[in-house]
Here is the input.
Amino acid sequence: MNFLLPTLRITTLVALFFGLPNVSLKAGVVTEILTGEAFFNFAPNPSVGLDLSINLSSNVVDIFMSGRDDGWFGIGFGNDNMDDTYAIVITQTGAPSEYRLGTFGVNTPIDSTVSVIGSSVVDSIRTIHLQRAADLGVAFPQHFAFPTTPGFLALAGATGPGGFNFHQNRGGKVITLSASAVPEPGSVSLVIACASGFYIVRRRFRCS
Here is the structure.
């Protein structure tokens, strides 16, 4: 009963907000994830965006990155500058590469550990969905181990024309990783019936 009451309140709020014709609740198993977002505003040049989802049960991190499609863009994790930082860089072709960054353009390529789940270009902005293990273990000492508890995460973002080297823009920031619970696949806790069906975009319920 204590588990259902908060969910019922959330269900009611969702129904009121979207005007859903039918909302029902089913028992299900949930898993904890950590989520965070970042946006590097490099206007008038193309900006760089990041959406992270770290699944604490499966040790899988989903990484959504967005930026220019006529050059490269990248994000460094665990540091707000380039010095000795693990980074994922998306090239002009849309291919991801992983580096240990250094100063003065001395960047060391490291083993590829990310998988491309999807990639698209809209209005000259590429969005790519990557996956990798959140913690790769001692076999990959050059790779960043993503956090397993809520808190702060330092990031470095950069972008540039042509091949990866010269950065036209760069910046650093610190984001907050927040914990939330979501239904595991095949074990739906919240069933939303919309007039025109339902779909999920990056963990958010929306009606078409």
User: Anything to note?
Assistant: The chain has two domains: 1-28+188-208, 37-180. The mean pLDDT is 77. The longest strand covers residues 169-183. The first helix runs from residue 4 to 18.
